[in-house]
Amino acid sequence: MEIVSRWTAFGGEQLVCRHTSSATGTPMTLGVFVPPQALETPCPVLTYLSGLTCTHANVMEKGEYRQAAAELGIVVVCPDTSPRGEDVADDEAYDLGQGAGFYVDATEAPWAPHFRMRTYVEEELPALIRANFNVAADRQSIFGHSMGGHGALTVALRNPDRYRSVSAFAPIVAPSQVPWGVKAFSEYLGEDPAAWRRHDAVALIEDGARVPEILVDQGESDSFVITELRPELLVKACEDAGIALTLRMQQGYDHSYYFISTFMAEHIAWHAERLA
Amino acid sequence: MEIVSRWTAFGGEQLVCRHTSSATGTPMTLGVFVPPQALETPCPVLTYLSGLTCTHANVMEKGEYRQAAAELGIVVVCPDTSPRGEDVADDEAYDLGQGAGFYVDATEAPWAPHFRMRTYVEEELPALIRANFNVAADRQSIFGHSMGGHGALTVALRNPDRYRSVSAFAPIVAPSQVPWGVKAFSEYLGEDPAAWRRHDAVALIEDGARVPEILVDQGESDSFVITELRPELLVKACEDAGIALTLRMQQGYDHSYYFISTFMAEHIAWHAERLA
């Protein structure tokens, strides 16, 4: 793992790292914030999964997570949203291909060779962080935004023993039922919706996956809420399953990092309590 | 004044505004954060001047000022760093022309017609804000970064009756004595250094300008500190003049927004005390 950039911030270090991923077969870039506490003691890890069109850099520049992470001693890991490169399949649409990996392992052409973001996030990334940073291996949590909220929820629901907590900003809760997800899953996973259920938070819960609790913030003025995000489907699934969902509808807020940054510190504090 | 964009953030509103400037003769874009308190009561104004290459957007996206401004009820105004446009003079260098206005009124060709950032920031901008927002006209302060730190210091030193307080991140304290400033001032103000002194914080202090106190944060690992920023010249000038300068050399920090954002809340709190 190569450190590409390094900045002191809030008493810790914001790094940009690059490594060759065995999961995707490509170089992958990620942001890692190392709080000052990591100089002395193993720190818990909170992974943030970004949304469509984002790289590792969006949340690093606009997410305003460092102050809370430094105060609470949390390593914040911010991977990219897909493999990238000239030899990697892509599509001109913003919601498919590079920048739109949807945190699945693609089974279909032309995506299958590199679009393996599920394995990357679930398996390779935690191991990479453990091998390179002073972290407490048994204390990790995950959160994300929009497509990354979908990623966080599905990763946590599939691995409740490995993630202490999960939260999301404006997540795509049921990709199998909305245009973004139907388009991406058809391309990445094929036309049979049965293959999509392990990559859909609502379907996972319907099929028996459980986490004890979920925190979600959703902007009421988010233009994607009705068509793509559909928090009511998560409410229903959690009610039926007995999962303690805290869904906070935030008046006036949209889908942007102005929304995310506003509630970022509260999410980090919420995770920190569960990572203690 | 036109509102180009509007986002809810930290309970207030982050706006991007555009207006036709009488000072520069061009459209000018600025960021304005309106805290929730402004719905009910006139709020003080804190103007942030950005550095070389920046637009209004850099600090808006990376500066992390909204949380503190919302808590303390401060309107934060973030203008652009120069006039812009196809009909506006420019230079291919990053440190001259568009993006590098240096907060002076240019007297020389080809800059004089539009590069009037001193009048813009000192005169037009406060009037624009008073006319369009619920602000307390007698309570304004100013701060900035690098070239914008130079701007903030010189604006405040020339107008101590109009600004309650001034602070800076890594300011160019003596542009007349460093390459960035000599280049820009020669172009904008002509070759006679006598004309530069009203645009140079150290020279202004030497010539009798006074503010009661100044807060400066300077990264120790800032690659520009020795050649361009030279905080020791401000220390000397303030000592000789009896100005209470608090210069905090910050170990490990560079010239980036990772540095600025780390100390942003402290600067806003410092100004808020003086704006109360």
Automatic annotation (TrEMBL), chains A, B:
Biological process according to GO: formaldehyde catabolic process
Pfam families: Esterase
Molecular function per GO: carboxylic ester hydrolase activity; S-formylglutathione hydrolase activity
Catalytic activity field: S-formylglutathione + H2O = formate + glutathione + H(+)
InterPro entries: AB_hydrolase_fold (IPR029058), Esterase-like (IPR000801), S-formylglutathione_hydrol (IPR014186)
Gene3D superfamilies according to UniProt: alpha/beta hydrolase
EC number(s) on file: 3.1.2.12
Gene Ontology CC annotations of this record: cytosol
Family statement drawn from the similarity comment of this UniProt entry: Belongs to the esterase D family.
Name of this chain's protein: S-formylglutathione hydrolase
